[in-house]
Design goal:
Mean pLDDT of chain B: 79
Strand content of chain B: 25-35%
Largest sheet of chain A: 8 strands, antiparallel
Radius of gyration of chain B: 20 Å
Largest interface: A-B, 31 and 29 residues
Low-confidence stretches of chain B: 1-58
Shape of chain B: elongated
Structural class of chain B: alpha+beta
Radius of gyration of chain A: 22 Å
Strand content of chain A: 15-25%
Shape of chain A: globular
Strand order of the largest sheet of chain A: 3-5-6-7-12-11-9-8
Helix content of chain B: 10-25%
Distance between the termini of chain B: 30 Å
Largest sheet of chain B: 7 strands, mixed
Oligomer: heterodimer
Number of helices of chain A: 5
Number of strands of chain B: 11
Mean pLDDT of chain A: 88
Low-confidence stretches of chain A: 4-25
Order of helices and strands of chain A: EEHHEEEHEEHEEEEEH
Structural class of chain A: alpha+beta
C-alpha cells in the first residue's frame, strides 16, 4: 500500500502555478490592488466553459464516481478546466503534495489545488504589524480560524503520469454553504445517495455529522460489510487529507457533511472525494518503472561517452 | 508503506479485466488427506527448503509443463533466498557478481592464510553451481500460509490473501533484495465457494493457525532495480490444506 499525497516533493512545474483550463493562457499575477474578480481573471486566463472532456466516458453500468464531473482517469488539463468551470472565482495552483519520485521525475505534475481568488491588497508596514499582532492574540486565545468562508469551495486533485500524460487518481472538494441558504444535513445526505447510490458504509455521529462511503473492489464490485476489504479500502473526503493506494482496493468515494454549531440540523459544509486506489497504484508503478529505465539509460550513455571522450588522468 | 519498490504495473493492469477463475476447479474438495508442507509466514521466503531445478517437471496434471518467461520450463520448489537471487540475475540477463560475493563470503574472509586459495575456489564453485542450477527455470512452487479470509456471503467467496495483488514475497541474500509478486493476484485470490458448502469449509478449517497454500507460479516478467529487482509471476494453480492435512481446495486459474 502506498501512502500518498502526504510528502511534499517540491514539484511546482507545469500549468500549475497559475494554471488555466488552457494553461498557456494563464498569466502571472500582477502587482497593485485588485478585486477578487480581477485576480481570478488574471490567474484563470482564457477558460472555456462548460469544460470539454475528451477522455471516454465510463461504461454505462459503472458506478458513479465523479466529483462535480472530475473523476479518476481524466487528464490534468481536463480536470483543471472542469474545476475552474465550477465557479468564476476558482483559481488553480500546482500543489506540492505528492509521491517522492526519482530526481528525473521532477517535471511530473502531481496535482493541483483550487481555491477562491482573494482580493490583492497592498499593505503597509503598519498593516503587517497589526496583522501579526492580531494573529498573536488569536493564537494565544486558541481562537478557531476557518480557512474558508461561507459560499466558498476548495479542491485538491491528485494526478500521476509521465510529463504531459498525467491523469487524475484522486479528487476532493469541500464546500461551505452560504449563510441563510444552508441545506439541512439530511437533504445533503439524500442528495449524495441520489447521486452515488446506496452507500457501502454510513456513519451518523453524535455531533450531527454524517460520513458516507461507496467503496468498490478492483473488479468494480461494491465492498459490502461481509468483505475482507471492508475495513481496509477507505476513501478520503477532505481536500486536505492524504490517501492510501493499494492494488487490493478499487475506487472509493467518500463524503462527509458537517452541521452548524448553532443548529445541528443545518449543514455548515460538506466534503466529497474520490480515489482510485488500484488505478493510482498501477499508474505510479508505471511512472517509477519508466523513470528508472530512463535513468539507467542515461547513466549507461554517460559511461559510454566517458569511455570515448574522458581525459586520462596524469599519474 | 511507501517503501515498496514499484514494478510491473503493466502486467497488473493487464490482469484487471478478466475476473474469471475456474469455478469448477475451485470447488471445495472433500476431505482427502495429504501431507501438507509446513506453512511459512506470509511475505517471508520459505526457509530451509530444498531448491531444485527440474527441467520439464513443472506442470499441471492437465496441461503438462508450464512455460515461463522466454519458454523456460524448469521448476524450483520452495527456493531459498540465494537461489532466488541467482534466478533474478538469470531472468534479468545480468551477470552475477560472483567475484565480489566470493570475496565477501565469511568462509573466505575468515579463512586461514594457508586455506584461502582453496576456500576461495570451493566457494566460487558453489556460487557458479548455484547460478547454473537456475538456468531455464520458468516456474516456482511455493508453500506458505494462505492467509484465508472469512467467507464473504455477498459474493460467495473466500479471499486467499497470500495471493492478493498487494502480496509481496521478499528474498534477501548476497546484498540483494528480490521481490516476487502475483500479476494475476486480483483473480487468483478469489476462491469461489457456494454458500451451501461454506460452513463445511469453515468447519474443516476450525480455529487453528491457518490454512497452508501450495501454489504453482509461472514466471512472466522481471524488473531490475537498484539492489535487486522484482520477479512477476502468474498463479497457475494452488492447493489449500488445513493444519490437520485435509485438502480443502484445488484451484486452477484461467490463464490469459
Amino acid at each position: 500500500m502506498i501512502g500518498g499525497a502526504l510528502v511534499a516533493c517540491g514539484s511546482k512545474s507545469g500549468p500549475g502555478t497559475t494554471t488555466g483550463g488552457s494553461a498557456q493562457a494563464a498569466q502571472a499575477p500582477k502587482k497593485g490592488e485588485a478585486t477578487a474578480v480581477e485576480v481570478a481573471e488574471e490567474m484563470r486566463g482564457d477558460i472555456d466553459c462548460p469544460a470539454k472532456v475528451k477522455t471516454p466516458k465510463r461504461a454505462g453500468d459503472a458506478a458513479v464516481v465523479d466529483v462535480v464531473g472530475v473523476r479518476p482517469g481524466l487528464t490534468y488539463d481536463e480536470a483543471a478546466n472542469l474545476v475552474m468551470c465550477t465557479h468564476d472565482l476558482l483559481v488553480v495552483t500546482a500543489d506540492g503534495r505528492g509521491f517522492q519520485l526519482p530526481a528525473n521525475g521532477k517535471d511530473i505534475r502531481q496535482g493541483f489545488s483550487a481555491r477562491f481568488a482573494e482580493p490583492r491588497v497592498v499593505k503597509s508596514s503598519e498593516d503587517y504589524m497589526r496583522e501579526m499582532s492580531e494573529e498573536m492574540m488569536a493564537r494565544s486565545g486558541n481562537a478557531v480560524r476557518q480557512d474558508m468562508k461561507p459560499g466558498q469551495s476548495k479542491w485538491y486533485v491528485g494526478t500521476i503520469g509521465m510529463p504531459g500524460q498525467e491523469r487524475v487518481i484522486t479528487a476532493a472538494r469541500e464546500e461551505w454553504f452560504e449563510e441563510g441558504k444552508a441545506p439541512t444535513v439530511a437533504t445533503v445526505e439524500q442528495a449524495l445517495i441520489k447521486k452515488y447510490g446506496k452507500p457501502t458504509r454510513s456513519q451518523h455521529w453524535d455531533g450531527g455529522s454524517v460520513a458516507l462511503s461507496w467503496a468498490y473492489d478492483p473488479m468494480g464490485r461494491p465492498i459490502t460489510e461481509t468483505s475482507p476489504l471492508y475495513n481496509s479500502c477507505t476513501g478520503v473526503s477532505s481536500p486536505d487529507g492524504g490517501g492510501n493506494y493499494s492494488p487490493d482496493c478499487g475506487t472509493v468515494v467518500a463524503a462527509a457533511v458537517y452541521p452548524q454549531a448553532a443548529n445541528r440540523e443545518l449543514g455548515q459544509m460538506m466534503q466529497v472525494g474520490v480515489i482510485d486506489q488500484a488505478g493510482g497504484y498501477e499508474a505510479l508503478q508505471a511512472v517509477e518503472q519508466t523513470l528508472q529505465a530512463k535513468d539507467a539509460q542515461l547513466k549507461a550513455q554517460q559511461v559510454k561517452d566517458a569511455q570515448q571522450n574522458a581525459d586520462v588522468p596524469d599519474l | 508503506m511507501r517503501s515498496l519498490t514499484i514494478v510491473i504495473a503493466a502486467l497488473l493492469a493487464a490482469a484487471c479485466g478478466d475476473s474469471q477463475t475456474s469455478d469448477s476447479a475451485a470447488m471445495p474438495v472433500a476431505g482427502a488427506a495429504s501431507a501438507a508442507s509446513a506453512p511459512n509466514a506470509e511475505s517471508t521466503p520459505p526457509s530451509a527448503m530444498q531448491a531444485a531445478a527440474t527441467p520439464a517437471a513443472a506442470g499441471t496434471a492437465e496441461t503438462g509443463p508450464v512455460q515461463g518467461l522466454g519458454g523456460r520450463t524448469g521448476e524450483l520448489i520452495n527456493p531459498d533466498n540465494s537461489t532466488m537471487v541467482f534466478l533474478y540475475y538469470d531472468l534479468a540477463g545480468l551477470t552475477p557478481p560472483i567475484d565480489n560475493w566470493v570475496e565477501q563470503d565469511n568462509r573466505v574472509q575468515f579463512a586461514q592464510p594457508l586455506d584461502k586459495a582453496e576456500r576461495r575456489k570451493a566457494v566460487r564453485a558453489e556460487y557458479e553451481s548455484a547460478a547454473a542450477a537456475v538456468r531455464g527455470v520458468g516456474a516456482i512452487r511455493l508453500s506458505m500460509n494462505a492467509n484465508l479470509s472469512e467467507y464473504d456471503p455477498s459474493y460467495g467467496e473466500f479471499s486467499v490473501r497470500a495471493l492478493a495483488p498487494s502480496s509481496v514475497i521478499t528474498f534477501n541474500d548476497l546484498g540483494q533484495k528480490v521481490e516476487l509478486r502475483f500479476a494475476n493476484g486480483r483473480q487468483a485470490q478469489v476462491w469461489r465457494v457456494p454458500q451451501a458448502d461454506a460452513q463445511a469449509v469453515r468447519d474443516k478449517i476450525g480455529y487453528g493457525p491457518g490454512v497452508s497454500l501450495d501454489t504453482l507460479l509461472r514466471i512472466t516478467g522481471v524488473q531490475p532495480g537498484p539492489g535487486g529487482g522484482t520477479i512477476t509471476t502468474e498463479v497457475v494453480e494452488y492447493q489449500m490444506q488445513t493444519q490437520s492435512g485435509l485438502t480443502i481446495a484445488r484451484v486452477q486459474i484461467a490463464q490469459r
